[in-house]
Amino acid sequence: MNSASAQPAEVKSNTNQTLLSDYLELTKPGITLLVLFSMSVGFILGAGSGFSFMLFVNAAIGTFLIASGTAAHNQYIERDLDKKMIRTVKRPLPAKKISAGHACLFSITLIITGFFYLLIFVNPLTGLISALTTVLYLGFYTPLKRITFVNVMVGAVPGALPPVGGWAAATGSVSDPAAWVLFAIVFLWQVPHVVAIAWLCNDDYRSAGFKMLPESDKEGIISALTISGCLLMLIPASVYLFMLDLIGLVYLIGAILSGLFFLYFGLRFQLARTKDNARKVLYGSLVYLPAVWVFILFDLFISWLVW
User: Fold this and answer.
1) Do 166 and 287 belong to one domain?
2) Helices 124-135 + 100-121 axis angle, to 10
3) Confidence band, pLDDT 50/70/90 cuts, at residue 141
């Protein structure tokens, strides 16, 4: 009797856990965590010796909320297109695990809550940067994906704003060139990352009606030049952060080696525009940005110990 009475509760618990997992998937946790990591680096580097733990926690909470909401609303907007792609057909909305209405309400609630949280508990500038990020991503990048391959460049702008938001959260300003060097690093990283994904998933994107660069560049010449060009600029951009005298040799060596590692895969794709080489560019991108952020934090940690 005890076993029988326990069964419905167990089924309900499993259902709730599954629903929670579906909502979590709607927020694209991998991308959201990278946004949070990028914001954190901007905050810590900007704060320097004036680091405030409570301010950092508030910035992280607000950023997490608005980034999660933006990712979820993107999936809400593209739910009918996601049905047409193999890589997205199992997402919660096309798989009908969550209703469109609930997803819309959930995402808008997160965005509004995150915006006002940053506005009240961090500072107005950080709230405005987060709002700008959301508007650029949902209002410009998302619709442009169905119009022109230039969406790659447009989408890289909101993608590169999180470290600037972190800097603003710590300092209340974005006038320091270092904030925009961080922006440049993420921008130049993101373009090869997205082009590599588009090259690998071109058939999927075409079936959904997305206008990605490989669709207009059958031979891959422009795609390869775009990847190589960004990677060639990425190394001096990362070195410039060292030249601003905010960071030390540990970062410099790590950033150069990481940049050369990433560039190697980009040049291989330049020489042979195959899916295998595009996959290696994607792999290089997944290693590069977290590695550079870790080198920044490790270098700062060492300097704080010495200081």
Assistant:
1) no
2) 150
3) very high
Single-letter residue type at 133: T
Per-residue pLDDT of 163-176, as tens digits, reads: 999 999 999 999 99
- Report the predicted TM-score, pTM, of the whole model to 2 decimal places: 0.92
For 51-86, what is each residue's pLDDT tens digit?
999 999 999 999 999 999 999 999 999 999 999 999
Last residue of a domain, one of 122, 139, 170: 170
Is the separation of the CB atoms in 42 and 167 below 8 Å? yes
Give a yes or no: residue 285 inside a domain: yes
Which of 139, 170, 201 is at the close of a domain? 170
- Comparing CA positions, the residue from 302, 197, 204, 200 lying closest to residue 249 is 302
